């Protein structure tokens, strides 16, 4: 047929004609080595690689799950701690308020007492002062009466009258009192 | 491609897919014919590299078993979580026990695709033999599992009970055909995408030898490389999610 | 005869590759409609990305079939 001449020419050109894929003489060799390769790959994958990778993936997902759970737990703990902190803060604030109020009340009481004491002292002082003033006033009145009596006696005698001590005293006393 | 060779420059986009003995000097020996099933070929080497890359990521990367993962460990965990969620969402709770199998398929295809993008490397998943084996494993596994779990009730998924009675036999034929086309599309999609992407890259790389268009060609190779990175991941994802969808038929009972 | 067969082979491969255009249209249609729906109801978009990719995969598979035919014509026939 036509292919014979073609193949002869191809052989002369240094390469075999036709598709190497259709050269059935090499099929046995190819299929043998293919099966060997596939069996080796299958065994390696089936018994070494895939269980290992599968285990690693499962491990990782469980680690992630655990870590997430732990993180959630820690978050809850943090929230609880915050709550406790806030409660403690509130309590401390209330305590501080109470102490402040107490102190204030104490100070007020002290102050009231001191004020009362000061008032008493002031009252005593002013009463004493008033007594003294009254005394001085009384003293002054007496002196005025004395001076008026003397002055009146002198005036009466200067005018030529006879000074009656008793009546003059009575008149001056009445005038001064009036 | 021979007539291209006559014009002065040759692009051999399919040469990168040739299976050859690994410990073999092409100058002195024939490295491509009569390869026995046990011989160490470039397929063997790049599949071993795939296995080593997976072990490095999934076993070595997670050796610390750290709660706070290192970068490599978190990449492994991301892939684990991604595929686990996919299996759980698509197949339901009953499908979770097939998770290691789905994970095997996903990691193998993903790393084979990505390692295939290293310049000069060999893309094991661009070979129909490999992808058909992968797809047939899923197809046979799902079919046998469905029959074992649901008995003949598994065949009820071909009998569309929501359709009018007269249409049901026709629909049953279509459903059966589409069921058996599954492994074909499942495998050809993966191999085709990778083969096409790598071949296109090779073609553009070949254009780079022409001075006039080489800047365009180099830019195109770069752009297609980015696209191929996307394709490599998306095709691994698509293969896996289709596996889950097929698995749902088996574990989730007959659908309607 | 050999020349003619070669010619037919390449023409056939080119024709088969047209099928990829259909896959491109299909994938673009799915992605565009997904985007339109996602913009209308962004909250539901994330849960539907799996369906998006499955749909794209199915649409693309058919294009890949035609690409496969092209490759078979180019290299295997």
UniProtKB/TrEMBL annotation, chain C:
Subcellular location, principal: membrane
Domain V-ATPase proteolipid subunit C-like: 11-73
GO cellular component, one term: proton-transporting two-sector ATPase complex, proton-transporting domain
Pfam family, one: ATP-synt_C
Record field: transmembrane: 12-32, 52-76
Gene3D superfamilies (alphabetical): F1F0 ATP synthase subunit C
Keywords carried by this UniProt record: ATP synthesis, Cell membrane, CF(0), Hydrogen ion transport, Ion transport, Lipid-binding, Membrane, Transmembrane, Transmembrane helix, Transport
Domain of life from the UniProt record: Bacteria
Membrane topology qualifier: Multi-pass membrane protein
Record's subcellular location: Cell membrane; Membrane
Task of the protein: Key component of the F(0) channel; it plays a direct role in translocation across the membrane. A homomeric c-ring of between 10-14 subunits forms the central stalk rotor element with the F(1) delta and epsilon subunits.
PANTHER family listed in its UniProt record: ATP SYNTHASE LIPID-BINDING PROTEIN, MITOCHONDRIAL, ATPASE PROTEIN 9
Protein name in UniProt: ATP synthase subunit c
């Amino acid at each position: 047929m036509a292919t014979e001449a073609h193949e002869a020419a191809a052989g002369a050109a240094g390469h075999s004609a036709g598709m190497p894929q259709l050269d059935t003489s090499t099929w046995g060799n190819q299929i043998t080595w293919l099966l060997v390769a596939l069996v080796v790959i299958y065994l390696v994958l089936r018994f070494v690689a895939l269980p290992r990778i599968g285990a690693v993936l499962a491990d990782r997902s469980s680690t992630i799950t655990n870590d997430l759970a732990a993180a959630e737990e820690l978050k809850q703990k943090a929230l609880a701690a915050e709550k406790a902190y806030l409660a403690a803060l509130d309590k401390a604030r209330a305590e501080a308020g109470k102490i402040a109020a107490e102190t204030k009340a104490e100070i007020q009481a002290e102050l009231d007492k001191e004020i009362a004491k000061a008032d008493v002292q002031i009252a005593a002082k002013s009463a004493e002062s008033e007594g003294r003033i009254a005394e001085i006033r009384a003293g002054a009145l007496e002196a005025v009466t004395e001076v008026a009596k003397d002055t009146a006696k002198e005036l009466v005698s200067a005018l030529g009258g006879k000074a009656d001590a008793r009546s003059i005293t009575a008149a001056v006393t009445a005038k001064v009192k009036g | 491609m021979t007539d291209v060779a006559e014009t002065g420059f040759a692009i051999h986009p399919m040469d990168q897919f040739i299976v050859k003995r690994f410990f073999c000097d092409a100058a002195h020996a024939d490295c491509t014919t009569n390869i026995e099933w046990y011989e160490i070929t470039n397929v063997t080497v790049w599949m071993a590299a795939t296995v080593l890359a997976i072990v490095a990521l999934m076993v070595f990367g997670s050796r610390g078993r750290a709660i706070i993962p290192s970068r490599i460990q978190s990449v492994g965990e991301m892939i684990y979580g991604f595929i686990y969620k996919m299996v759980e969402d698509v197949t339901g709770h009953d499908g979770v026990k097939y998770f290691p199998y789905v994970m095997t398929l996903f990691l193998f295809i993903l790393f084979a695709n990505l390692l295939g993008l290293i310049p000069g490397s060999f893309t094991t998943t661009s070979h129909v033999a490999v992808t058909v084996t992968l797809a047939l494993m899923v197809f046979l596994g799902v079919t046998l599992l469905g029959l074992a779990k649901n008995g003949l009730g598994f065949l009820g998924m071909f009998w569309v009970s929501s359709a009018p009675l007269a249409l049901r036999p026709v629909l049953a034929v279509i459903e059966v055909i589409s069921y058996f086309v599954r492994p074909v599309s499942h495998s050809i999609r993966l191999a085709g995408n990778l083969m096409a992407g790598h071949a296109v890259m090779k073609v553009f790389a070949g254009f780079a030898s022409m001075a006039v268009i080489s800047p365009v060609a180099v830019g195109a190779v770069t752009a297609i490389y980015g696209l191929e990175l996307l394709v490599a991941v998306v095709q691994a994802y698509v293969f896996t999610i289709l596996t889950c969808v097929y698995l749902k038929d088996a574990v989730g009972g007959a659908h309607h | 005869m050999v020349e003619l067969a070669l010619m037919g082979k390449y023409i056939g491969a080119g024709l088969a590759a047209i099928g990829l255009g259909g896959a491109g249209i299909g994938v673009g249609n799915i992605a565009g409609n997904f985007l339109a729906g996602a913009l209308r109801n962004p909250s539901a978009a994330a849960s539907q990305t799996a369906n998006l990719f499955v749909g794209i995969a199915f649409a693309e598979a058919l294009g890949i079939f035609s690409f496969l035919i092209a490759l078979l014509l180019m290299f295997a026939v």
